[in-house]
Every structure is written in structure tokens, then in C-alpha cells.
Design brief:
Oligomer: single chain
Shape: elongated
Strand content: 5-15%
Distance between the termini: 64 Å
Order of helices and strands: HEEEEH
Largest sheet: 2 strands, antiparallel
């Protein structure tokens, strides 16, 4: 038997009344607002806050043999991105373009 996939499909849910569907949909006005958002940090400091007692642990690596600092954009890049050397220093491919 051939099936017409473009024909509207009827299921048991189609027979429900509009009132029954309205009862299942939550009311937008009575929705509870989630104060704690997962994208935002749990605590944050306001501008001008005293951060003098805060210790930051940062590991600074020395320049590697296969890296250079572009004298145009001042980014550390791999030697494969070196375009040319000027009297001021190396320039990367992106800055030369």
C-alpha cells in the first residue's frame, strides 16, 4: 500500500479540545524567573571594589625558540606565520596583508 507522506497525519492528540491544550501550556505571566543563571558567575565584584587581598596565580612562559612577537600587532606567533623582518622587528603574515 502506498503512503502519502504529504497528507496531514492524525493522532490521538488532534482530538483534544482547545481548552485542554490551554491547560497544559504554562501561563507566561506566572512563570518563575530563575535568578541564578548558569552562564553568569556565582559572585562578581563591582567596579571599584578592593581587590588588594586577591592573589592570582599566573604561569608566564619564556619565549620559545619557534615563536616571535609581531612588531605590528604585538601578538606572539609561530615562526611559520613570519612574513618579513623590518629594522624594528618581525612582522606576521596577517599584518602584512
Amino acid at each position: 500500500m502506498a503512503t502519502d507522506y504529504d497528507a496531514p497525519r492524525k493522532t490521538d492528540d488532534d482530538s483534544e479540545s482547545i481548552e485542554a491544550l490551554k491547560e497544559r501550556v504554562p501561563d507566561k505571566l506566572s512563570a518563575v524567573i530563575d535568578v541564578e543563571d548558569a552562564d553568569n558567575p556565582g559572585s562578581f565584584d563591582l567596579p571599584g571594589a578592593d581587590l588588594s587581598d586577591l592573589d592570582l596565580d599566573v604561569v608566564v612562559l619564556p619565549p620559545q625558540a619557534d615563536e616571535f612577537t609581531c612588531m605590528s600587532c604585538f601578538l606572539v606567533k609561530h615562526r611559520s606565520q613570519l612574513d618579513h623582518e623590518t629594522k624594528l622587528g618581525p612582522v606576521c603574515l596577517e599584518c602584512n596583508a
